[in-house]
Design goal:
3 domains, five-stranded mixed sheet, 16 helices
Length: 584
């Protein structure tokens, strides 16, 4: 681990923001659980498709290094319109493709921009999914048969359904009567023995849950709780799982909550989403436990040099071990005996101040250019505050790209200076009268204002904070991104976009009153109004664009005879025009 000291008192300018365009351009405005709700409404398409989870990763898309969210569209047999042995085991056998969205782009309606969407999956960028069938995934907990007399449902196409036949090497041949009898007994279904729909070429696909499949193949390893999908260069889909070697017998070592004193992420496992092939790559050849397992099971491991490059560039430091490392560094960064004994400089990871989440929002993946580095890279980071205090003490990074995979860096702020921490910034946002008034107005209007994760974004030797604000209409299930709060030092501003918020903070503006904003109704985007700020050309252009959007929606509402929406859009248009005039 490397420790680097930062001044902490640097005042950023718009030139610093522009110099770190790769970091700013990948700020994660979409929160994974809220994006999952939105994708569930927009992209599940049919009732029997589900998104089990949303993961984030990095891709080079149209020549740019981008952070994206991915959600695999899996088949949920429990939601089939007619549940029968034929439907569940022969016809509906697999999921179809995924949805991919950049973490930082939003449509004019506040919805995510989709790089890959619909059925069959269509791409709007250089990313292409050419083998979208998902036979092995996170929701696939049941067995199915392929190569039967029945065609398999592939995807809907208008009023018709497109069918397919499985051509992979996954599964077990079940053609003989003896095998059918054995599987009927093993799977607890006499239909397998009695049905006349199986043929000599039929195969049964079992253990299709990728986590269960990997654990069954490698029972002597521990697995991280998160698995994530990767689109390969040939358009196929694989899952990556992180595996650990672990022991409770390592002497003179700190212990985790479950008693472990030794843990290494020595194995990377891939599971093909089409044929279920499990491949375990030995990533750490200095791990004595992993090497012992390799000698015991020589055919179980593959050398890391044989991992395809299009998979290797998506490897990461897993969440489980990063949490343990962060918890240990909070104490063991103290290298003076008297300081360590007295716990004078104990750190802690800030707690979420907004709403309950399954994971700590201050631990996150992001693309950024680290201080002193030339290029932006994909990292895992978390901030630290002093124990019992709210100011920021340091931030901790795990690097992931190329040969830097696994490198750890602590960026430390001086103890004698005050650097605002997440809780202090959250309180400043709460106390801003203009922001508070706007959020209260939304909540009183019958919709729900949802405050997203407060993002800590290191820039050069300082920090900016970014918090997305979402709106969900009363009775609706689609959160829309409507505002972005930006904070740096003593300045807090809320804009309709990240660019507006940055222009207000770094372009000579500040937090000024927002024009009233009508609450959205189900299916209709809320009227938008721009915040005040500096008279920069960027902000004027953004306000002009929003004025055009309100005008277009007003005309559409007029043609549809929806006079309530027409009135709201015209009122919002007038508010934006007044803001433009006040800045000229």
């Amino acid at each position: 681990m490397v420790t680097r000291d930062l001044s902490g008192d640097a005042q950023l300018t718009m030139n610093d923001i522009r110099a770190n365009a790769a970091t700013i351009g990948n700020i994660r405005l979409w929160e994974r659980d809220l994006l999952g709700q939105t994708l569930g409404q927009l992209q599940e398409i049919r009732t029997y498709y589900d998104f089990a989870s949303v993961s984030d990763d990095r891709y080079v898309i149209d020549g740019k290094y981008r952070q994206v969210h991915l959600a695999v569209r899996e088949l949920n047999s429990a939601s089939l319109p007619t549940r029968s042995f034929i439907n569940e085991r022969f016809t509906y056998t697999h999921g179809m493709g995924l949805a991919m969205a950049p973490v930082n782009e939003v449509t004019s309606e506040g919805l995510p921009v989709l790089f890959v969407k619909d059925l069959p999956p269509a791409a709007t960028t250089s990313i292409a999914l050419k083998k979208p069938q998902v036979y092995y995934g996170e929701l696939t907990n049941s067995y199915v048969f392929t190569g039967t007399v029945h065609e398999e449902f592939d995807h809907p196409a208008g009023d018709q359904n497109v069918t397919t036949r499985y051509t992979g090497k996954g599964g077990i041949a079940i053609g003989s009567l003896l095998r059918r009898a054995l599987f009927a007994w093993r799977l607890g279904s006499y239909n397998i023995l009695l049905t006349g729909d199986l043929e000599d070429t039929s195969r049964v696909l079992i253990r299709r849950n990728v986590n269960e499949r990997a654990r069954t193949a490698l029972p002597f390893l521990r697995f991280d709780n998160e698995q994530y999908p990767v689109i390969r260069d040939d358009g196929s889909l694989v899952w990556i799982l992180d595996a650990y070697t672990a022991s409770r017998a390592y002497p003179y070592a700190a212990r985790t909550s479950d008693g472990l004193s030794y843990m290494r992420n020595s194995v990377k496992v891939t599971v093909d989403a089409y044929d279920g092939t499990v491949t375990a790559y030995l990533a750490d050849t200095t791990d004595a436990i992993a090497l012992a397992y390799q000698r015991i099971f020589p055919s179980a491991f593959t050398a890391m040099t044989q991992m395809p490059e299009d998979i290797r560039r998506h490897l990461r430091v897993p969440t489980g071990i990063f949490r343990i490392q962060a918890a240990l560094i909070a104490t063991y960064h103290m290298d003076r005996p008297e300081e360590f004994y007295a716990r004078e400089d104990q750190w802690q990871i800030p707690e979420a101040a907004q709403r309950e989440r399954a994971t700590n929002p201050f631990m996150r993946h992001m693309i950024m250019r680290l201080p002193g580095e030339k290029d932006a890279e994909f990292i895992y980071m978390t901030p630290f505050t002093p124990r019992g205090k709210d100011n920021l003490a340091a931030w901790f990074v795990a690097r992931m790209d190329g040969d830097k995979l696994g490198e750890l860096i602590v960026y430390r702020f001086p103890n004698q200076s005050l650097v605002y921490g997440p809780k202090q910034i959250a309180n400043r946002i709460e106390q801003d009268t203009d922001i508070s008034r706007q959020l209260t107005l939304w909540d009183q209007g019958g919709s729900q204002a949802i405050r997203g994760e407060l993002l800590v974004i290191p820039i050069e030797e300082s920090l900016i904070y970014v918090q997305p604000i979402y709106l969900r209409a009363q009775g609706g299930a689609i959160p829309e991104l409507k505002r972005v709060v930006v904070a740096h030092g003593n300045q807090v501003a809320m804009g309709a976009t990240l660019e507006e918020g940055l222009a207000m903070v770094f372009g000579g503006g500040g937090s000024r009153p927002l024009a009233p904003l009508a609450a959205p109704t189900a299916g209709v985007s809320g009227a938008t109004a721009g915040p005040g700020g500096g008279a920069s050309a960027t902000l004027i252009d953004a306000l002009t664009q929003r004025a055009q959007e309100h005008y277009d929606r007003a005309m559409a509402a007029q043609r549809a005879g929806n006079w309530a929406d027409y009135g709201r859009e015209i009122e919002a248009l007038g508010a934006v025009l007044r803001q433009i005039r006040s800045r000229r």
